[in-house]
Each structure stands twice: as structure tokens, then as C-alpha cells.
């Protein structure tokens, strides 16, 4: 309520609203599925400028930020775009472009961009916008964990990956030689440097942050938006938060994203926020196979797959490229091929941590088997708490004590 009260000063002057505050207000709409048909999803759907107009209008209305006279005029008008309120919303959209949060694009009837800007206008989120949404998602999720800030764990000052913890101990064979000069000299000055022994050495214990390569497997099959619950938007928020965390706090790490549905494809983080639900089935084996191919190119201490899904494997890519599908039950053919990919992950030293957004008995058994095979972990979560589980798991795996 405090934010709504604060915005009361914008009555009649909504175009003075700061772009970053506006982005925060429409975050859910930008990441959500409201711009697609949940019953016939189009993975290639792109939000239009009209969609953006509606998202801003709804955000303003929810926060009681629209002056009564403008709201009344808009309700009585045949075209809200031509009202004073409509013009102010257009000004806010222009400001988002000027401040570098969105990029307006045009498509002509042939699907090609036209210099004359004919056809329906769409928009793309810029790198600045992706970074903002990632930071906002990370801050919200870490706040839910009781952290004071998203930057509480900062490793950028330690290029070697070692962060001093402050505790001293006598050196033992095999320890990393993080020598504490003051304590060591205190042990040897009284007897002379020439008489220094191994027992005189004192080291400062440290935490070692291993370099990691992470592939986030995001299920974007039809079930992720069915049954009255949007599970895909929270999954994307988690992915953006993880990308921001790694970029700012663990710059030696890498993270890539793979969407899986009837098939699987890599998607750059710049396209992740506007990714849509894809075709209907769940090709888990295809996603795992592509993730392994991407991880083979990485030279990191730790390689892991973070799989976020809500359904059982129900599709498989055949050797000739055709897609075999069976949405009824846990198909032995599909299951066998999926578990073979899991076994390949194990042989390659890749850990698979699964975050399951459903609790069907068949799924529980499948997820536990995957976790046992790769010595990974299984979490049965909800769209409301999945972000906290993913981030806690990542940070916990990243840090181990080195004596």
C-alpha cells in the first residue's frame, strides 16, 4: 500500500513515472503468459505494443493511480487510445524505449521487418531490461530467504576463487598454504628463522568457490500453464535470477538455458524472458542430450544440470528425427531412453538436480531414480517457493570448506 500512496502525486501526470518503477510494476506481465493462448499456445508468439499498453493500463488501475476523471473518460470512450489516459500511457511506452528498456519492432504482412513500419508493432526486451528483471527477481527471492541483499556473497575480489574466513589453524600436510604471516612469525622469532619447523606454520582457513558450468533445463510443455496455474512464469523468474547471480557474484561460472517440449533447443538469456510455452509434450531425453552437448564444451570444476519440470517424459526424438509421443502413463520406451541419457550424465560426471512442480506417484519415483543415478538432489516444490530452493541449492553447492 505504501507504493500506491506514493504514486498518488502522479494524478494527471503519469508520464512523470520513472521507467524503472514502471518496469517493476509490469514485471509479471512481461514474463507471464497473458500474451499467449493457454489452450493453443504458439511458441513463436511475440507480444505487441497493444499488449504492452494493456499491461501498463492494468498495472495503473490495480494501484489506483488513475485519476477518477481520466478513468471515467476512458470507460465512456469507444477507443481508450484516443483519451487523455491513453496518451499518457503512450508517453510511458515511449519513455521505456528512450530509456533503453524495450525495442520497438515492426513486421509487414510477409513477416519481414519493413522500413516503412507497416504492420503490427511488436517489442523486444533489451539487455538492460533483462538485467533489471534478473536483479529484481534475485532480490525478491533472496529477500524471501532472509538475506539483507542479493550481493551478500561477493567473490569478485578473489581471482583465485579463495575467500578468507578468518579462522587460524596449525598447518597439516595436504592443507592449502594460505599462510598467516603474523602468527607464523610470532612462533619463530623467539628461536630464529633458521630453526623454523613445519609445526610453526599457521594458516588461515578459507572457503573455495569452485568454478561451475550450469545448464538450466526449463520444461515449456503445455502442462506448465494448464489446470489454472501458471508454472512457467516462476520458472523463468528463477532462471533470470540465477543468470544475474552468476554474472554478478560468480563471474568465472557459466550458465546456459535449454527449453524442452516436443524437442529441445538452447535459448539465449536475452530471449528467455519472452519465451513462450511450446508444443504439448515433454521430451526430457532430448533436453538432457542437448545439455550434455553444451557441457562438453565447458572446462569447469563442476558440471550440473538444473531441471525444472512438472511432468513425466512423454516424447522422444527418434534416430530419423521424427518425434515419438505418448501422453498416457509412463511409456517404457520413453522412460528407457530418458534414463539412458541420465546414465550418460553420470558417466560424464554431470550432476542432475531436479525441481519438480508436481507430486504424482509416477513422477516421484522417476525423479528419485534420476537423482540416485547422478548423485543429484530432488526437490518437490511449488511455483511459490521454487526460486528459493533453486538459489539455495546453487549457492550451497558452490562453496566448500578447504582446510
UniProtKB/TrEMBL annotation:
InterPro entries: VWF_A (IPR002035), vWFA_dom_sf (IPR036465). Residues 211-394 form the VWFA domain. Gene3D superfamilies: von Willebrand factor, type A domain. Pfam families: VWA_2. SMART domains: VWA. This is Ca-activated chloride channel family protein. It comes from Deinococcus humi.
